Amino acid sequence: QVQLVESGGGSVQPGGSLRLSCAASASIFSLYVMGWYRQAPGKQRELVASSIISSDRTNYLDSVKGRFTISRDNAKNTVYLQMNSLKPEDTAVYYCNARKILPDNVLRTYWGRGTQVTVSS
User: Percentages helix, strand, coil for the chain, rounded to the nearest 5?
Assistant: First the structure.
């Protein structure tokens, strides 16, 4: 089992910044990918950003490109999401996500409990 603990959510005005953190209970190098999803009220959960551990390749939702940055601290088994120029439409619960490849190539997914981000004037 891999536990993911998020922190850093909160309320901010439009144009502001927040940094989310997600600490994994396992070595980050045992994971295939870590990332962030979000879910706004009445909407489906969507991938915001992800980072493939072995290659450092990152992927972003089009609407956050240039504003959000995903990064890692491997020594702390932690992934971050730096969110700048926040917009009201970024308001959502943000979930940390990790995937691990188990024996027999089974892909296991882990989720954090989520942290609320509210962008409002």
Answer: 10, 55, 35
> What is the rounded distance in angstroms from the CA atom of residue 25 to the CA atom of residue 46?
24
Average pLDDT over residues 62-75: 96
Tell me how far the alpha carbon of residue 1 is from its chain's centroid.
19
Tell me what pLDDT residue 121 has. 94
Please state, in angstroms and rounded to a whole number, the distance separating the CA atoms of residues 52 and 28.
10
Residue 6 has a CB neighbour count (10 Å cut-off) of 21
Radius of gyration of the chain (CA): 14
Task: State how far the Cα of 11 lies from the Cα of 18, in Å rounded to an integer.
Answer: 9
Q: Which amino acid is at 63?
A: S
The pLDDT confidence band at residue 41, using thresholds 50, 70 and 90, is: very high
